[in-house]
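Subject line: Sequence and fold of a protein, written as structure tokens
Body of memo: The sequence and its backbone structure tokens, given next.
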Amino acid sequence: MLEPLVAALLAVQVPQASGPLDAPVFTDTAFGVSLPRPADQWVFEPARSRGTTTVIFYPRGVSLSAQLWGALVMTRFTRPVRLSEVADDRVAGSWRPTFGASFQLLARDSLTLAGLPAVHLIMSGTISRIALDVEEYLVARGNDLILLQFRYPQNMPRGPIAEGYDRARQGLVIHGGPLAAAGTPPAPAPPVVAAPPPLPALASATFTAPPRRELWEALGWSPWRVTRVDVSVRLDEVNRRPSFAVRLDLVNDGLPALDSVPLWLPEGAVLDSARVATGPVAVHRRPAGVLIVLPDSVGFQGAAALSLFYRGAALGARAVFADDWMPAVQSRFDSLGHGRATGEPPLTLRSNLPEGMATVATGRLSADLVASGRHQQLWSAEGAAARRPGFAIGPFAPVARATGRMTLTLWSPVYSDAPLDSAARLVAAAWAWNTRVFGAVMAPEVHVVVGTAQDHGLPGLVMLSDSSANHAFTVYREVARTWWGGAISTAGEGSAWLEQSLATWSALASGAVRVSIQDVEQAWRRLGSDAPLAALVPTTATDAELLATKGVSALEAIRSAVGEARLREIVRTLAVEKRGRVATVRDLLALLDEHGRTRLREFLY
């Protein structure tokens, strides 16, 4: 893909246009993109060639050889655009040859522009004996690449030029991008704990990397948006392989009309069939995921309902469905591997299990019935809980435990009362601590499962293995993950750091583990990895440990810069302001003073 990219964008270096267009806004309906001009005296010159539209904009009467101009380029490829590869190609294949020996790369970072993932490049050098800076934004929208470029000649006053370019950048509209995640705005001291875990062991021992690359290769920036999910899962005593029936209500947020839906299936799943209201539909297998062919095209903002029937991998006595267990038509990650907001469609989960087995899920238990040797349940999740749904299957039964003024519902196999009482006290203390740090939790109900196959904190659901139920640090960490995940989703660069490190920091700050920050920093150094936190995408257990150790060290750097009281105030402010919405690293940086931002950037970039 990169070879034709150079040719497709070469017109940006040598503009060829048909004539000026004096208009306040340039609009391209084919790509669904509009851009306001930087100032009233500027004009647009559009040119189209081989599916690529190049728009040069510059002050009326000023020669392009003066290098005071910008460009908007829109082109379409046959597969999803990977921004990291495009950025590498732009730097090595276009700008280094153009600037020659004078080339300097001043900045390269990732951000969100017009609601879509983007790479931001700043370069300087000399073209035709004119020294200039070039600022370039590369934006991905599925198979489409939108490039926005601004040129700053160093022999002209920068202020007025920068103000005009900033107006153009802020006014850029790209239709077909994601909708913002919907959301509604809205103690006792820790107990004496057991010995701390050995370092480095601050990350979850059961960490499993979400399949970011696989999801992206299968889905890219899919324009399909899920508005409602209905899931039915059945498990038989002899055949321990669960059968799923999933209905997805979809809306096409993209341009143009679509006659197919890309689909990613969880590992080990086998798709039996797919249907729409009128009957079965064709399924095409692809190297990454599958493609569902619809009987009719669906236009912009059109709706479709898709039913999928598939079998999951064989289960043991207890199973956990925590991350990416459900078919996906829209990736939770952008083309850089960072998290992105995908909304919170209401979800219902119906389970039909052998008697003696139960399902514990995020959300509310709306119905619970045992008849004819089968246990049937209905769980309903909306809002924060629907953002990352999960559930556990096993021989679980609910037990109520009162700890002070708090009553917990614990789901557990048959245990003696003592371990459950101890676990209930730990969870209650952890809940009180996180309420003091972050504020009241968003989830309407919280369920705690003791005896799952692994530890995992999800919105409104804490899952603990037998060995972890009375391990203070693990309980505090997973409760923090449940609280944070139940209130806020993260997106953009550094999303993995925000999601993972704040839970670990909360557990450490509570005193639930007697580990000094020096121990944490030594654990980070021993890992032999020093990847910038903003760019880190966890794919291994070592990545998770780096997020937990270097990530906590970054928060400690903020504490040393602004003080402990101010750090807690900042974390709580971020939690309150972003409840039910999306939080980014830039939101955190905006709450810090210049000294704190400088210290944090050393870890992030």
